[in-house]
């Protein structure tokens, strides 16, 4: 047998250490703990209203495009130096061929403006250590070390400001693989010999000061992957920088709870609303930095729905594009962003300046709020055109389509509002209706039973709505497909004893026959255990099917296992209760109960 070599695990270990915070399962309390520093920054309002930002990862890795010495890499392209263990001396030489002559700041800023983007954050220096601006602190920068010799950030700051887009820099404050004392290059430099204080003093802080001095007012300084400093040191670092631009917002990844708004994990949307200022950050394809063989771009409809979903939870979406080594934004990023912009042009009122929706996600879609208005983002039209807004106790005065302002019929029954929708294309990305109301309304409530209706192909009763008894927890599980392309799924975990329960309250709006499936992931150890689903008093037994190991670095496959065919004889509330039939082992990791009309 081949002997295991410890060194071969180092990249994995480094990645694990780097992301260990995001690997940690979140409890619901942590998910609701929103603010970063606990204090609201006086200049936070523009950010809260902005809702849509453009993230740009651009550095020497763009030139490599996911390939090194004939080998292709997948996942996070900006990590290629680390993935391929490229020595500093060789990586440095890439700069000599980096000549992004097709870069055009006005084109980028115009694209952002056409896309309805309100702020842009670009990598001034990523973990590779290369400054994409004119730095006097280190020669490893685009002006001194490349044939391009110009400062693209100057032009971009001017082009965005001209178009009213807030401009900001991403800066990797701790990781710097080029510097002997920077964080996490362990293939060239010995970990134990690093002097982080020296690195901060001689590179990170002076470079951040350059960025905060030479590029006009910055909307945001987007820090990433903190490390190497105590809370006191981080506080001093923040205080020192804040003096230069007191109005700039610092992302929560400055560390130690000292940021001005919260960033969730990469590609993560919380499953319930979050108060305060926060942001979800997503890649457009699978990588942040350009990879020429990464063609998995989110379609315009996917972007629009993602944006509405993030806004419905009260946050901003900052969507990333990775321009290539010549300075071009990938064709599909430009095209799909422009399509998103066309939608925002007509529907922006329902997104910009909104806060989270008061109505939990429904089979038809999500909602966003403004004073006296609920915007209903309909992504699935009920087949009979009758849309239910449940658990709403405001006095509704009118309902109309956002585009065209066509008045719609509605009626109120207790806390239900039933709206008669006009015909519209069922495949459209997101059709918005406005419900105007007066009076004080109840806040978002997780206890409103989840709607199940035969008017939709399927109804998802998500894990987050579970009421738990005994061992189970609701956890956000984090895993990756390729490398660093994180995915997050909220699941009920730790259902392992016969006294444990996960109970879901649903409200069936049309009586009839339905099929009920459990969507779960099940490790080999958990497979073949018995469980019971109780729908009110009716029992359905099942034995779990194996999917795969839960491995943070591998996809977490879920299956839909049909457990029951049942008849809901009356419209109304039902409880679905899941219990293991043996003690000791976790039954599965339950993502959702999927209820489909049987037709
Ligand atoms: O390691 C980086 C990664 O390359 C990318 O920049 C993302 C963007 O949020 N931040 C780090 C991982 O969380």
Automatic annotation (TrEMBL):
Q: Name one Pfam family in it.
A: Alpha_L_fucos
Which Enzyme Commission numbers does its entry carry? 3.2.1.51
Annotated GO biological processes are: fucose metabolic process; glycoside catabolic process
Role according to the record:
Alpha-L-fucosidase is responsible for hydrolyzing the alpha-1,6-linked fucose joined to the reducing-end N-acetylglucosamine of the carbohydrate moieties of glycoproteins.
Q: Which organism is it from?
A: Pedobacter africanus
Q: Where are the transmembrane segments?
A: none
Stretch forming the signal peptide: 1-25
Q: What is this protein called?
A: alpha-L-fucosidase
Annotated family: Belongs to the glycosyl hydrolase 29 family.
One GO molecular-function entry: alpha-L-fucosidase activity
Keyword Hydrolase in annotation: yes
| Protein keywords | Glycosidase, Hydrolase, Signal
Instruction: Indicate the segments forming the Glycoside hydrolase family 29 N-terminal domain, all copies.
Output: 30-349
According to the UniProt record, one GO cellular component term is: lysosome
């Amino acid at each position: 047998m081949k002997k295991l070599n410890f060194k071969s695990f180092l990249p994995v270990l480094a990645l694990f250490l780097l992301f260990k915070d995001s690997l940690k399962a979140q409890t619901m309390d942590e998910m609701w703990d929103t603010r970063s520093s606990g204090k609201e920054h006086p200049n936070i309002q523009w950010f809260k209203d902005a809702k849509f930002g453009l993230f740009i990862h651009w550095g020497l890795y763009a030139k490599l495009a996911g390939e090194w010495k004939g080998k292709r890499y997948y996942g996070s392209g900006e990590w290629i130096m680390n993935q391929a263990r490229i020595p500093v001396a060789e990586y440095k030489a890439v700069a000599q061929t980096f000549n992004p002559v097709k870069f055009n700041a006005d084109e980028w800023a115009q694209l952002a403006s056409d896309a309805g983007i309100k702020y842009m954050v670009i990598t001034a220096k990523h973990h590779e250590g290369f400054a994409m601006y004119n730095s006097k602190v280190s020669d490893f920068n685009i002006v001194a070390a490349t044939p391009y010799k110009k400062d693209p950030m100057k032009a971009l700051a001017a082009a965005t400001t001209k178009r009213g887009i807030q401009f900001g820099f991403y800066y990797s404050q701790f990781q710097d693989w080029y510097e002997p004392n920077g964080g996490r290059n362990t293939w060239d430099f010995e970990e134990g010999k690093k002097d982080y204080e020296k690195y901060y003093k001689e590179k990170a802080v002076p470079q951040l000061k350059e960025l905060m001095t030479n590029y006009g007012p910055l909307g945001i300084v987007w820090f990433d992957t903190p490390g190497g400093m105590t809370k006191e040191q981080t506080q001093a670092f923040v205080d020192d920088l804040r003096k230069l631009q007191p109005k700039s917002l610092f992302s929560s990844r400055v560390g130690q709870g000292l940021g001005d708004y919260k960033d969730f994990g990469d590609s993560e949307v919380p499953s319930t609303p979050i108060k305060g200022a926060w942001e979800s950050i997503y890649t457009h394809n699978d990588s942040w930095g350009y990879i020429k063989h990464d063609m998995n771009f989110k379609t315009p409809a996917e972007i629009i729905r993602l944006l509405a979903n993030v806004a419905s939870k009260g946050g901003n979406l900052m969507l990333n594009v990775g321009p290539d080594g010549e300075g071009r934004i990938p064709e599909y990023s430009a095209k799909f962003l422009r399509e998103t912009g066309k939608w925002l042009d007509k529907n922006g009122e329902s997104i910009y300046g909104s806060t989270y929706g008061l109505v939990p996600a429904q089979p038809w879609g999500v909602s966003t709020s403004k004073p006296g208005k609920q915007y209903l983002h309909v992504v699935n039209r009920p087949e009979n055109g009758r849309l239910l807004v449940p658990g709403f106790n405001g006095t509704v005065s009118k309902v109309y389509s956002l585009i065209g302002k066509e008045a719609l019929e509605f009626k109120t029954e207790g806390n239900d509002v039933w709206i008669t929708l006009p015909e519209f294309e069922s495949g459209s990305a997101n059709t918005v209706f406005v419900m105007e109301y007066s009076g004080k309304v109840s806040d978002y409530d997780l206890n409103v039973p989840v709607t199940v209706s035969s008017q939709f192909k399927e109804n998802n009763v998500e894990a987050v709505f579970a009421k738990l008894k005994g061992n189970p927890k609701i956890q956000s599980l984090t895993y990756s497909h390729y490398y660093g392309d994180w995915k997050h799924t909220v699941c009920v975990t730790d259902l392992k004893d016969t006294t444990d329960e996960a109970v879901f309250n649903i409200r069936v709006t049309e009586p009839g026959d339905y099929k009920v499936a459990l969507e779960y992931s099940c490790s080999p150890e958990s497979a073949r255990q018995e469980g019971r689903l109780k729908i009110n008093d009716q029992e359905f037994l099942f034995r779990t099917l194996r999917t795969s190991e839960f491995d943070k670095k591998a996809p977490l496959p879920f299956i839909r296992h049909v457990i029951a065919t049942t008849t809901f004889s009356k419209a109304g509330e039902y409880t679905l209760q899941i219990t293991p039939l043996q003690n000791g082992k976790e039954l599965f990791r339950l993502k959702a109960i999927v209820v489909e009309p049987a037709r």
